[in-house]
Every structure is written in structure tokens, then in C-alpha cells.
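Reminder to self: keep the SMILES exactly as supplied, no canonicalising. Ligand is pyridoxal-5'-phosphate.
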Amino acid sequence: MAHFPHTDVTRETCLRADQADPLRKYRDQFALPDDVIYLDGNSLGARPKAAAARAADVVEREWGTDLIASWNTNQWFNLPVRIGTKVGQLIGGSGGQCVVTDTTSVNVFKALAAALRLQESDRPGRRVILSERENFPTDLYMIEGLISFLGDVDGRSYELRLIDDVRELRETLLASGDEVAAVLLTHVNYRSGAMWAMNEVTAAVHEAGALMIWDLCHSAGAVPVDLDAAGADFAVGCTYKYLNGGPGSPAFIWAAARHLPRIEQPLSGWWGHAKPFEMSVSFDPAEGAKRLLVGTQPIISLATAEIGIDLALSVDQAAHREKSLGLTTLFIDLVESRLASHPLTLVTPRDEASRGSHVSFRHPEGYAVMKALIADGVIGDYREPEILRFGFAPLYNSFTDVWDAVEALRLVLDEERWRAPGFQHRDAVT
Ligand SMILES: *Cc1c(COP(=O)(O)O)cnc(C)c1O
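C-alpha cells returned for the bound complex:
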């Protein structure tokens, strides 16, 4: 029972909701310290217990004993495709459209370059790339880098235009849609938790003749996604956030089946070759999503990523979304009712249909408040400016976690614990 009336909620109510939670059994699949409430799965997912044994097996048996034969006998060579197929099942597509490889940043580069190339042959002369001002910076940096690298193409260089919201996106597409080559948006915003309406936006972008690239870093394993149903052209995303793949585990890149045979991406390394071991002098792209690969893969990271992805695949998506919304709505309600005397401003949409799986509040002392909260065992994170971010992972967070986290935050604020000097100092990673 994820949604319950939030007036007069007590810790008891939360305990009862946990007992009735159909996803409750998943908590035991994760290793988390007992004295911690982990609300940062949107940045680094928790460790599935099985990941340790899998990593040990890859290191000791596959690497240590089987050595180089493992590329064949332990299927190392096929790992990016095998795991990519699983991610594809989660985000849409009938298979063969997705590989797990490289970083999201690198995959943004490949997807955008491939999209621009397709457009230049189908609808030449379009030179605008649209994205959002609030996008995660690396996406914008990668666009900038590609634009500057491409330079003048037939006398005109590409140009990045930034929009702020769906209204501005629609206006821009109406006014100058025939100049737009590709649109790159992050489905769930890393800071605000706001979620784009994927189907409607993709349709509007297509109507203007542009290609749609979705960044799913805060969506995969967090909210239901069906890229094929939306008609998306490309997608990228992380596996180390809600997919619990492990620190720095490889990202994914997905392409619509209709584009795959024609896709050319500029990082044409040997792993993307049709026959890499023929050691041929010239590049001939592999069939399907394999052509999105570049070079030798981080096998140990891929192996642990598969554990988290398997877990995500085993979950009922509707129940997962229901619980995610139950947790985020409860958190918003409790903060607003129990912490009303403090200067906290909700940044995340109140409308559930426009919300991912994390909640952000602004507080003028946000950084120090988060550090004080972490010292008390509630781990969220901080993002500029002044934003406290709390990720809710339905697989291992409970309704009681929400209650306890809000109480911990109340103590930090009521007792002004954040004023302690140690909490003012900025670490390199916030
Ligand atoms: C987390 C995140 C990234 C991270 O990119 P890396 O290349 O894996 O460091 C990129 N884009 C978005 C939207 C993210 O949320």
C-alpha cells in the first residue's frame, strides 16, 4: 500500500506500509550498513550482495585461472551485448538495440555524432542542436566539444541552443524547427527530479523533423521507460545509479532499430568492427548495436553491473513506480508538515506524473545541512545552488526510512547542528 493518506502519519503508519510493501523482500538483496539510511542511490546505487561474489569469481576464477581463454569460455567478448540486451528489455526495444559500454559522456558524443550524420544525409543543412539549460553539465560539454570539433560543415558550424521548459521547446520547434538537427534532453533532471513527458516531447521533436536523444541516467531503474513506444531515436544512460551496477560501471547506449543499419559513429574502434579479429586495414561496422562499441571493455565492472541490472529486471515495473511515488510523496508531505518552520523550498514537481524518483529541497545553508545530516547517518547529497537532494530507491528504501530521515533532518534544523565548523568545509565531491 504505497499511497496512504498523509494526514496524521506516524512512524507506526510507515511501519505498517512497509509490512504491506510488495517490494519489501528486495531490501535483503542489498548490503547496507545498519546505522545508515541511504538516500543517494541516484548518485551511486547500493551494492547488491551478490555483486561481491560475482566480482570475486571474475577476478579469481575467470581471470586468475581461465586467463585469456575467458574472452571465449566465460563470454567476456559478448558481455556488452548480453548486458545491453537486458538493459534494452528494461527501457524498450525488442533486443539488439543496446550495448553497455563506455561512460555516459562518451555515449552522448557517439549518439549525437551518429544523429547528426543521419540528419545530414536525410535532411541536410540543419545546424541547431537543442538541449536544456538545466541539463547535467557533461551532456552540454560533450555537445560543445562535438560542435567545436566538427567546425564548419558546408560553410556553417553547428550551434547549441538551450531551452528552459516544454513551452520554450515547443515554441522553438514551431519557430525554427527546420533548423534543428537533434534534441538532447535528460528525461529526469538530475537536480530538480522533474521528468519530461517522453512520448509527447518525442512526437513534437519528430514533427519538426529533428531526431530525439534521451539521457536516461536518472530514469533507468527509477521510472518505467519505453523508448520504442515513444519512438525515440537514441538514448544513453548510467548503470551505477538506480541500476546499482557499482562505482563507475559502464553506461549504455541505445538506438532505434530503424536507424541501426545506417549508423556511423566517429569512435570507430575495433570492437565496433564487423570482424575485429580479421585485423583488417579498414573499418567495416558490425551489425546492430555492436557498432556502438569502441575498444576493450572493463570486464570486472561489466560483471558487477549485470547483477544490478538482473535485479532491476526481476521487479514488477508498476509496483516499483507505485512505491517510488509513495516514498517521494510521503517525503514531500512530511518535510512540509513537520519542518514547516524552516526555510525549505520544494524544487521537485508536486505533480507525480512529472516526477522521477528523487526529491530536492532548497535551503540557504544547504551544503552544511547535508553534511550535518550525513554525520547523523542519513546520506543524501548536495547540488549547487543550495539544493539538498534525496534519492528514493524502491528496492532498498522503506517508508520508515522516509520517516526517520525527516526526523533526522528536523533535529539538524531545530538544533542548528549544521552550524558546527566542520560542516562548512567543502569536499572535492559533494
Ligand atoms: C550522472 C549523469 C551523467 C554522468 O556521466 P558520466 O560520463 O558517467 O560521468 C551524465 N548525464 C547525466 C544526465 C547524469 O545524471
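Points to follow up:
The chain has a mean pLDDT of 96.
The first strand starts at residue 30 and ends at 31.
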